[in-house]
Task: structure prediction
Amino acid sequence: MKGHLSLLLVVIPLLAAPVTAALTRARLAWAIAFAVTTACVILAGMQLWAVLNDGIISYELGGWAPPWGIEYRIDELNALVALIISGIAAVTLPYALLSAEQEIPEDKLPLFYSAFLLCFAGLLGITQTGDIFNVFVFLEISSLSSYALISLGQKRQALTSAYQYLIMGTLGATFFLIGVGLIYSVTGTLNMADLAQRLPELTHLKTVHTGFAFIMIGFALKLALFPLHLWLPNAYTYAPTVISVFLAATATKVALYVMLRVLFTVFPEGFVSTTPASELFILSGIAAILSASVYAIYQANVKRLLAYSSVAQIGYMALGIGLASAMGVTAAIIHLFNHALMKGALFMAIGAIIYRVGACRMENIQGLGRQMPWTFGAIVIGGMSLIGVPGTAGFVSKWYLVLAALEQEAWITVAVILLGSLLAVVYMGKIVEALYFRPVEETNVDVKEAPMLLLAPAWVLVIANIYFGLQTEPDRRGG
Amino acid sequence: MWMTELPPFIPFFLAAALALFTRGHLQSAIMLAAPLLGGLHLWLYVPADIVYSLPILEYQLILMRTDQLSLVFGYIFHIAAFVLVVYTLHLKDTLQHVAGLVYAGSAMGATFAGDLITLFIFWELLAVSSVFLIWANRTTEATQAGIRYLVYQVLSGVLLLAGALIHHHYTGSLAFDFIGLNNPGGWLILLAFGIKCAFPFLHTWLTDAYPASTHTGAAVLSVFTTKVAIYALARGYPGTDILIYIGAIMTCFPIFYAVLENDLRRVLSYSLINQLGFMVCAIGIGTALSLNGAVAHAFAHILYKSLLFMSMGAVMYRVGHVYASDLGGLYKSMPKTTALCIIGAASISAVPLFSGFVAKSLVMTELLQQGQIVVWLMLLFASAGVLHHAGIKVPFFAFYAHDSGLRPKEAPVNMLIGMFITAVLCIAIGVQPQYLYSILPWEMDYWPYDVTHVLAQLQLLMFAALAFVWMEIKGYAPPELHSVNLDAEWFYRRLVPAGVQRSVNFLHMAKVSTLTMLTGNIQRMQNKFGRSPVARYHLSESWPTGSMVFWISIILVVYLLLDIVFYK
Result:
């Protein structure tokens, strides 16, 4: 059993997907999806436990020994990411029960859950695999299903957004594939561990450099790194709320994981310093934090505001990677984790409002804070975490990031991080102001607190935000 | 049953918890038991070298650390707490009882705290619990005064915490021992103590809030907050020169306000600051004799100041206010309260054979020995002033002066008993000072009753009394009027609001005109820009898909160029 853990984690959702697609009853499809994600959380937890105790797990697919066969290679980093993804998926699904039923037509629901499971399987596959071409395969699985998921949004714009994301996402995936091809052409292997052994002798080759560039830029697009973030605001805004929650908390995180994997495992130590990658990371990170935060301030649609805030938060992670120190990467990983928590909580809370009033422009939600106190509380605490108030998770990662920047005396970076927090105060303040201090719209006078089923998952994440804000030992989170 | 390592705040907190759920005689018994049993336990069983700490995470909270200094303060706080419980027994207000017990308990906690974090915790508890004694009045005025009070107290706590952390950064220690001014943390902590101790310009919360509290609340408040601060100063900053001058100023400036003031509880508040000045000054000198003087003064002061506040509380309870202008002639119907008030007044004026004399002598003698002539003269002036405003003015206007025609009943029995015990202690200390001297923390050989000292003090008192009588007869004394005197509060209760209002108006106008100008310009620019293809292409709500292709290729090209040109 233990040996097959890593494979089961991917295979179970993958096999469950066609089963749910064949069903006609939505509730049954949901039950299967929920059972699968719960099982995956347990498996991912066991996997992390095993890795922490016994070290790296290597699983040979079909009994083919690597580097010829595909290998699943699990260390602490991807075990952690797998746990985050399954955890978020498991928290999202109870939320989906009400939210998705309201936003998606009844007959499409089984397909929706099927696509959700496919996307989930794809994301898990990316984290589990130790084969770089396999990453591409799973990337396409998750991407294609997420295009479908986004297109299920209520508004007509959902279709264009999905199409736009499809074009852009395919572009990114293609870049990645080109990069992998170039690397393969000189190394003759696709196994990451094997690549790591062969690449040190080949780093002088322009082919390797070019391949690296294609991989980085391809994933920068999937990561929505500024200025390649253009697909993200539309996709998050018009997707069904559940999908906004799920993608915001997981998809970009997986992209970041691949980036870390390629940068620090596949390519030899010191290779990054021979490329302009870290400078570009820092530059685009700074640009992301500043410009996306400013954009967020001017958004009238709350989901769109949060989407821009995501772009800014990704900028923080890029900064962490760009600093290229142990501390910086730790900060990036912790922020990856924490951002999943805070954005998940915020999108869920906004989703609860959408569930009640059917829209989420500032004028629709105004004054609802008093009628929906628990939802409002979740937004406030999630927002504080986003800003980085001490005692919340967001503080911890920003603190590490500032320390990493101070370590290298990168004063501008420090200033940008702090300024970013300040801008976050402004845009979160806008939401809070609208929710609490403005008079409620006449049509919304009778709006009640969101149902328990929507609140509970949001509050699970809110409490996690506080818990990880107080539990400040980085080693507990694989950093 | 008795453990020596029982932190003294625990009986109080327990009693507070129990008092919350009990009523009537049971509640009274519980409230009396806490200071009585706790005090006896402290007195009989706790030696001067106990350290008890509670590990929290990786940190040790030192909840109890006894030495002679903390024990003396512990004794007097227990005595005062007991007397005050007796004094407040007639109240049917559980809120005040519970708040008072938590408040007294927090004072014990702060007194026996062995590290700065524990001190901070109780420091904040002191603030939060005591504010209810003000709010319990349940008037708008009291609510607002309470909020101003709370702001000051919490600010003090925050400064203390910040100072403690900085102090830790410099010295690596959080122990609550000598702190000194060697690092910025020390200054912050001094400021924190200074707020609680009513340093000049930081004192306004005191004269603002104490007169606004309930008729019993003022007596309770007068005991703990400021004396905890005195204790903290005596431990953290003995011999810090700046305190001599701060103390000297504190003794003098309140006198003028006290003479002007009409609200007798506010008069007592000013005289409280004046008395604190003596202690702060003594701590600043920092010799064994002067520190003993500060401690003895605090000990005696707690008794007679609470006695005065209690007598005014009794008047307030019966009459409803304590405005000097509207009182007078009360001695006819409240003779016992009058007598007790006069004992308190004699003590605070340092009449020989009363407690104030034996305590103040220590400080004055040491000042002369240290050659601090100017400061000595200031304190001498202040001593005369004390007699004027606290020693004579308070009893005179309340109980004698022109007959107001009021004939209130004598104070309730429990109030009288409380005041009586306090008065007995005041006289006992004055007559038999050796018992107080024997528990003082430092070794000394001193006896206050010598000819020169007694004579000098009597002369001072006689002439001060003469001045008061002369001024009253000649009509030079400022008339007692209904008015609110604002001292340094004026800055934030008048100047700042007025100033802020004006600057806000100005800023608003500036903002409006600038905005109109800017928006006009921006609008024009936007219109021009908005028509350009760049804007239509990039600033629209969502970008066209093609722009992404554009960016990705730009980045790829830039990256590869950089890679080829700059990185080998």
